[in-house]
Write a structure and sequence with these properties.
DUF2840 domain-containing protein; alpha+beta
Length: 171
């Protein structure tokens, strides 16, 4: 007999019919294991219990998942992933707590890199842009620059305009 919590929710169709939703399970045990979404606009949400909830995203939506854990000796994990929910037939990366997975745009491990990404998100918002709607290439740029110890370039009006024009050309 299997033990554990309630079964995972079945994958549901999103309203547009493009494919199944991507489900993100968030856990919260104060001072021990804390997950939260830094940005993202879920299309559905469900509270499982006081410590767990599930947020669901339609294909193409972008979100940032922050995961932190500690033990008696201090922080043992600090990660930030920026993920694009995928549609039917698209390739994806499997990620903990993300069902079935998503296109990984940025992965930061360790508090110094997580803090740098959080500062980049703050700068994007301060410039008047919604982090969910900026060019996915900019998230990759930030991740690549941080990986090699270089500061990322800021998100500009020119880059955003180019992204909006390129997006209009995509089918």
């Amino acid at each position: 007999m299997a033990r554990g919590g309630p079964p995972a929710p079945p994958l549901q169709q999103d309203r547009s019919g493009e494919g199944p939703l991507t489900h993100v399970t968030l856990l919260w045990r104060e001072g021990e294991h804390e997950d939260w979404l830094r940005f993202g606009k879920p299309v559905a949400g469900r509270i499982i219990d006081r410590r767990r909830r599930i947020e669901s995203y339609a294909p193409g939506q972008v979100f940032a998942l922050v995961r932190w854990a500690s033990n008696a000796y201090g922080t043992v994990r600090s990660t930030l992933n920026i993920v694009r929910a995928v549609g039917r037939g698209e390739g994806f990366t499997t990620l903990p707590q993300v069902d079935p997975g998503g296109e990984l745009l940025l992965a930061a491990r360790g508090w110094a890199k997580v803090r740098a990404v959080l500062q980049a998100i703050d700068a994007i918002e301060a410039a008047g842009y919604d982090p969910c709607l900026i060019a996915p290439d900019h998230w990759r740029h930030i991740g690549n620059r941080l990986a090699c110890g270089m500061p990322p370039r800021s998100y500009s009006e020119h880059r955003h305009r180019a992204w909006l024009l390129r997006r209009r050309l995509q089918p």
